[in-house]
Write a structure and sequence with these properties.
The protein has helices spanning 2-28, 33-47, 49-58, 60-72, 123-137, and strands at 74-77, 107-110, 117-120. By secondary structure, it is mainly alpha-helical.
Length: 138
């Protein structure tokens, strides 16, 4: 019975250690846990069910870079326009709007039918985040 409790404590310690490492990585790159949960679905469907976990594990630079771009490289400015419906940011696949991103200033992308505006962070900010992620792992 002591072996069982010892193994259980060891497994729980490993689990919490892994959670802490993931949390540290998220905060290191400016990722929020909620947005990661909301947007990792896009990566899941991009890479497929079988390959997603391998992608996360085997290529962390690319995983965290893509996760940052799809979840943190934009935000929604509420009530930017007089009419329209509220924009749920979780429906946005930001990769569709990359052509509007500007070098050093935020880009406002009005979306027809929505009262909220999509704001793209500058390309310089995106590149800085990509470099930070790359340096963290290399």
């Amino acid at each position: 019975m002591k072996k069982f409790y010892g193994l259980l404590c060891l497994l729980l310690g490993f689990h919490f250690s892994t959670l802490a490492q993931t949390s540290n990585l998220h905060s290191e790159f400016g990722l929020t846990e909620l947005r990661c949960q909301q947007f990792s679905v896009y990566l899941y469907f991009t890479h497929g069910e079988m390959q997603f976990e391998a992608f996360k594990t085997n290529d962390p630079v690319r995983y965290y870079t893509e996760l940052w771009v799809i979840s943190e490289s934009f935000y929604v400015r509420k009530d930017e326009f007089a009419t329209g419906v509220e924009l749920d940011e979780t429906i946005i696949d930001i990769r569709r709007f990359e052509q509007y991103r500007l070098a050093d200033t935020e880009a406002i992308v009005p979306l027809e039918g929505f009262k909220d505006a999509l704001i793209l962070k500058p390309l310089s900010t995106v590149n800085q985040a990509k470099q930070q992620i790359h340096h963290y792992f290399n």
